[in-house]
Design a protein that fits this description.
The structure holds 2 protein chains of 2 kinds. By secondary structure, chain A is of the alpha+beta class. Chain A has 5 helices and 5 strands, in the order ββαβββαααα. Chain A has 2 domains: 75 residues, Ubiquitin-like (UB roll), CATH 3.10.20.30; 66 residues, [2Fe-2S]-binding domain (DNA polymerase, domain 1), CATH 1.10.150.120. Helix content of chain A is 32%, strand content 16%. Chain A starts with a strand and ends with a helix. Chain B folds into 3 domains: 54 residues, Uridine Diphospho-n-acetylenolpyruvylglucosamine Reductase, domain 2, CATH 3.30.43.10; 116 residues, Uridine Diphospho-n-acetylenolpyruvylglucosamine Reductase, domain 3 (2-Layer Sandwich); 110 residues, Enolase-like, domain 1 (2-Layer Sandwich), CATH 3.30.390.50. Chain B has 12 helices and 14 strands. The longest helix of chain B has 22 residues. Classes of the chains: A alpha+beta, B alpha+beta.
């Protein structure tokens, strides 16, 4: 077994240290070492988007990032989206539009939508649909999710 | 990206093989690291193929060499003499957002932007798409019709190889032990150049090409005649194919529907597709001609010509 590596990184604005094996994904370390279980394991191969996090401003699948790669980087997970004052508008609008059923894909969708609005605050419906094409949901049929994101962009 | 369906292999236990990880700061260091291993080192760029392959046991590694911290391997440079230089680890997102790429190489963007969704684009590199050597890789036919050249660094210096010679079998490229892809050079398009890539998939987005086709043309000053043309096909053979005869056929010919159709038919003739879960050989053979014709139409349009009659 390879030796564990000591990593220092910023997660949701806080400097964080952890030990990991080179083979461990960022998703695995977030969930099992750090205890941030908001990012979900869906397919574990980059198809579903349930594990989405924002890495240095870029939306990524955390199952397709080795944890050792985030040394000195900046990671935002679903746990870093809301503030102590309340839910992020995206989270609020997902509730209002009932943009979820089982909820398993929701953290990925919220993080992906946040990454979209960070770089395009006023997306068209087509832009929202194209951006979210890498996130799978088997409950909603996507329509409510798209409406929630468009509504959050307006508010 | 590997196949949507082939990759839904259950990852029983989720355990991945162990390896060491290193993130060198220079290309020289990469060479030294590769020289010190027995071919069991793997280069990590975006990881969208490699990480899945290691996890599923389809590739093995004792050492993973992350090249994303090496500026010369991640940079995208353009100059009017040498054209475009794509560092092997430059991400699809960075490439498709580059103003010079958008302006001078829209036919390249056609292929690169199809590689996965936003999450994959953020990480996946064109160098990796090439090294992964999938017959269906969307960037490769587009690179081929742009006359792109691989710059390969090895223990004994550098060598170059045209992209159409880089893939040797499904999942296998021409790199020898100890070598790595440093960058891809895409020459500056000539006057009246146009290129286009498209693919067929059974849905709107997020799939692997059933067949892909790229074409580029250089037209004369009146945009009525072909000075040269290149056509490349994906997913119809063990490697992406350059249809040399089809391109050569158009040289000096007028831009007419009959000539375009004949070139597409000649491209189709070299397609040797298989039947698999994405399509039948018969369907692929049919698609090869349809897509080659449409790719030519798109290339001619970008060159400012007309393909109407």
């Amino acid at each position: 077994m390879a030796n564990k590596v000591h990593i220092t990184t910023t997660i949701n604005g806080e400097e964080t240290e952890f030990l990991c094996e080179p083979r461990q994904s960022l998703l695995e370390v977030l969930r099992e070492t750090i205890g941030l279980t908001g990012a979900k394991e869906g397919c574990n191969n980059g198809n579903c988007g349930a594990c989405n996090v924002i890495l240095d401003g870029k939306l990524v699948n955390s199952c397709l990032v080795f944890a050792v790669e985030v040394q000195g980087r900046n990671v935002t997970t679903i746990e870093g989206i809301a503030t102590p004052e309340g839910l992020h508008p995206l989270q609020q609008k997902f509730i209002e539009h009932a943009a979820l059923q089982c909820g398993y894909c929701t953290p990925g969708f919220i993080v992906a939508s946040k990454a979209l609005l960070d770089q395009n605050p006023d997306p068209s419906e087509q832009e929202v649909r194209a951006w979210l094409a890498g996130n799978l949901c088997r409950c909603t049929g996507y329509d409510r999710i798209v409406k929630a994101v468009l509504d959050a962009a307006d508010s | 990206m590997e196949g949507i369906i082939t990759s839904i292999v259950p990852n029983i236990g989720g355990a991945m093989q162990s390896f060491d990880y290193v993130a060198p700061k220079s290309a020289e260091e990469v060479s030294k690291l590769l020289a010190g291993t027995n071919g069991d080192a793997r280069i990590l760029a975006g990881g969208t193929d490699l990480i899945v392959q290691l996890r599923e046991g389809r590739r093995t590694a004792k050492l993973v060499v992350d090249i994303k911290n090496i500026p010369e391997l991640t940079q995208i440079n353009f100059d009017p003499t040498n054209g475009l230089r794509l560092g092997a680890a430059a991400s699809c997102f960075e490439i498709c957002a580059d103003a010079n790429v958008i302006k001078h190489y829209p036919g390249l963007v056609d292929g690169i932007q199809l590689i996965g969704g936003v999450q994959i684009q953020s990480r996946a590199s064109v160098g990796g798409n090439l090294c992964n050597a999938s017959p269906a890789a969307d960037s490769i036919p587009a690179l081929i019709v742009h006359n792109a050249v691989c710059h390969i660094v090895g223990q004994n210096g550098e060598r170059t190889l045209p992209v159409e010679e880089f893939c040797v079998a499904p999942g296998k490229n021409a790199l020898q032990q100890g070598e790595f892809l440093s960058f891809i050079n895409v020459p500056l398009p000539r006057e009246n150049f146009g290129a286009h890539y498209l693919r067929f998939i059974p849905r709107n987005e997020m799939d692997i090409a059933v067949v892909g086709a790229g074409a580029s043309v250089v037209l004369d000053e009146h945009k009525k005649q072909f000075i040269s043309a290149r056509i490349a096909l994906g997913a119809v053979a063990p490697t992406p194919l350059l249809a040399s005869d089809a391109g050569a056929f158009l040289t000096g010919k007028p831009v007419t529907r009959a000539n375009i159709k004949e070139a597409a038919r000649m491209a189709q003739a070299i397609a040797k597709p298989i039947t698999d879960l994405r399509g039948t050989a018969e369907h692929r053979k049919h698609l090869a001609a349809v897509l080659a014709e449409r790719a030519l139409d798109g290339a001619i349009e970008r060159a400012g010509g007309h393909h109407g009659e």
